[in-house]
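Subject: for your reference before the review

Hello V.,

The reviewers asked for a structural picture of the protein, and I figured it would be easier to keep everything in one thread rather than splitting it across files. Below is the amino acid sequence we used in the manuscript, unchanged from the supplementary table.
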Amino acid sequence: MKKFLSLFLSAVMAFTLVVSTAWAGQLQYAGKTVILHSNDVHGSISGYAYMAALRDEYKDKGADVILADAGDYSQGKTYVSTTKGEDAFDMMNAVGYDVATIGNHEFDYGWAQLKSNASKATFKILCADVLENGATIFDPYTIIEKDGVKIGFFGMETPEAQTKANPALIKGLTFLAEQKMYDCAQAQVNALKTAGADVIICLSHLGVDAESEPNTSYDLLKNTTGIDMVIDGHSHSVMDKGDNNEPIQSTGTAFANIGVIVIDNATKEIEDNFLYELPGELTADTDVDAVAQAIINRVNQEYGEVFAKSEVELNGDKAPNGNRDSETNLGDLITDAMLWAATKEEGSITVPAENVVAITNGGGIRAWIHTGDVTKNDINTVLPFGNTVAVVYVTGSELLEALEASTYCTPTSIGGFPQVSGVEFTIHTAREYDANEETYPASTYYGPKTINRVTIDSINGQDFDPEATYAVVTNNFCAAGGDTYYAFAAASSQFDTGMPLDEAVMSYVNEVLDGVIGEEYAKPQGRIFVCDATEEGVVKGAVAPTCTKEGYTGDMVCPVCGRILEKGTAIAATGHTSKDGKCTVCGADLKPANEAPATGDSFTVVYMGLAVAALMGTAVVVSKKKEWF
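And here is what came back from the structure prediction:
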């Protein structure tokens, strides 16, 4: 009996040890607070079901969980844009978010609409650096307490919102920038510390892109103290730390990842942070997925009807070689549609037809149109902002200012980069942008003091006149001074047609293109030329000429603007002389086809390419100065 009892007790102890070990493994996050965060969801609402699933997984492992978002949830896909962002708030309510800040796209439908949407939120919305009549538009900060740990959150909005949203729809709001923004952030940190916060988290929609300097999250951290972690958005970066190990985490966009921050409740410190790539091993939460599917089904039924076909791929990229740094075939299609829509009714515009052009900001073009069937949903995804077609009357000099300001950093991408119809212009990227000392009013952009980088080559095939009056067909965002287009907002006269931009494009495709986007839009049509030539005529990235038996190889370049006409083409040698069957300059074993021309410049050799000359006249091969000639 004693032996049996001893064996029984040993078995019980062993079983207890196994169970307790397994239980401890299951509760590996007991005594921890886990912050799960998202940013720049942009209407990818199916991802919310995975956020709910990951929340439940951490809770099952013993963690206290907080859900947070760093902005830009109201716009992107038709699943949120068709209700002007309201469905995004419904989705976040369904998941059970605790706290969020706002991004610039929360203002896309105006401040009044945002207030209406926010009134339905069951989560706390924070924003410290946007003011109305001197007061913050939302609470600047909050403290969430979990298991004795006080976690302070405060929200920071990018000051770029004042020009990335339609200025006409956010009148009366003040966006703090640079030193005022840093001071504002420090004030929130100080207030949270005074209130007893153990850990301070900044919900930041500032991003880390160079084009956002000096208002990035990097700038914020350099100019403040006391922030334990920045949950970042805006730049769509995928990062769990900064370039120099700064405490910044960002998930990318569209639920590519979920951010995870682990706080030890005993030490009251952040002990880990990382990104969870979706879907991983997660199974979507069925309840939240049902809410998302109801929205998706409703929108697909309304917007899924095929109205046209495309025989070509239409470029919806940002950069490089996208809508924010280059002419694209999609930009050509959209601006052609705008021009047609604004002028199809006789008498709509009061200047001659040859003085009417169209411009839209490349940052407003958000997706590709692929070959095959085209639906209303496709067009609305490309143009999700609900913009209307507007007309602005400007002088030629004001038009030139708008183009100069909107390409000030090209080839670096910028949302204001102009896609155009009816105008051909050149951007000289090797020339410095001559910025004013002060920004445009209510803007983070600096207007040009002088016109240095842009030349307008022609308007509808006619010479450009800086004194003439031109009608610019644009969208109501640019007409109100959005992005870099202050020159349009300051124009003497403008009007809004009231025609939605996406409907203008669909009507153009149906009525002008007979429902088929064809080969005429296979490539960009040569309206914008980005010239990399330096003042010395050398083109950045061009290949220097090499003497061969076939002639010279290298990039044939226009001597006037530096345009690369042909890359890597063998050109009959002209300019090198021979002696004893060898080139006197490079020693190639050949007899040049021609003798040296009398150019008067011993350092530059001029080449004539027959095919190019027939089209464009004299061309030269890029030179390297004295070491070559």
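For the response letter, the relevant points are probably these. Residues 14-24, 572-576, 590-629 have pLDDT under 50 and may be disordered. Residues 2-26 form the longest helix (25 residues).

Happy to draft the paragraph if you're swamped.

O.
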